[in-house]
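Batch manifest, entry 17 of 40.
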Amino acid sequence: MPQLGESVTEGTITRWLKAEGDEVALDEPLAEVDTDKVNAELPSPFAGTVEKLLVSEGTTVDVGTEIALVAGEESPATEAPPKENTAAEPPTEEFPAAGTEAQPAAGGERQRAVAGTRGSRSGGNGRGTVEDAQTLRLARSSPVVRRLAAEHGVDIREVPGSGVGGRVTKKDIEGHIEQKERAPAGLQEERETFEPPETAASPERLPVHEGDRILDLTPMRRAIAGRMSLSKREAPHAWTMVEADVTGLAALREREKGAFMEREGVKLTYLPFIVRAVVESLKENPILNSVWDGDRIVLRKRINIGVAVDLEEALIVPVIPDADELNVTGLARRIDAVVKRARGSQLSPSDVSGGTFTVNNPGALGSVVSNPIINHPQAAILSAEAVVKRPVVVDDAIAIRSMMNLEVSFDHRILDGGVALRFLNAVKRRLEEYTPESGGS
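Output type: structure tokens
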């Protein structure tokens, strides 16, 4: 299983596109894989014959787990399967990325599709020592796991791993942290030493009544739940809102949308104007284009805007890299393209990686007020609500204006309310500067 994204730790084989015995070409789709970020086709890193499918459809496995054996074109199909967990094999510390070709073994031994390892291997008797196993767990943990452990002062070598070969997963670390927080200080060391993972209490279930339906969590829904819980648990959220009079922008959009659709082939929505105002305001207030990193704040140079896309059953945030280099027309094209790919399950890992700030657009669904959760570890998220005509006071007179609420949720560890409001008012100012005579690009 390749790592389909910088923070992806596992994936689900939703459908095999090749059966055992089928021929497969280099880079030909081998399986459909569902992760917490994308649904993608997995290309075969080798040309040859699919000898064995090691993982059944619907199974979720950790990154680095062997999922298929492919006999290379130079490999005789009658060879014995490769041995596993032998004393002669050294521990593998890094897994190749998707599309990386492994070097063929001596004697034409079978190539392993997206090769990983199973279990820890050390010592002449093949069993190894406790120290070897602990070191291997540390070496094989993902960057996300190591960062989470470092933030909470957890030694990965002390955490029992539930992954393949004892690999410590993100869930193991989070469970270990929760267990430490629940345990009385005087009993903490004893509990960690003597309570095996098998005795951990199962989650308390609610009663299920006749007629109720149980929906199993998809990898994406499970990931959303985990990320949102992590964000609310880790980041002290604060929230503020301003009203923007976008009457001029509404008139401009109404005037231009027909010609824009004919010229560009995409709809002209409010979102590219909002994103443009956001990126310019981030330049004035760079602390909002940052991430929390344990005991420090990292200010990002690039402005990569994540755009929340509603998929009915889930929410996904594709990223517009270097959004500050695009005008409104360029943003409209780019947003339309990633939204279509998101709704067609065609996003690649690069489409959902590297975001530095997120723009949410619940106004497209009729929302007028919302309180978004920060896309951890980013500093803040902006929500743009529906444009609604309301009576407002203008120059001591009542007028009907097109109004939009803008909210920002921010991590109070990184910034305070004054900075957040200066940013939000900068966005407001830019949106209110549009007039029917403004250029649409």
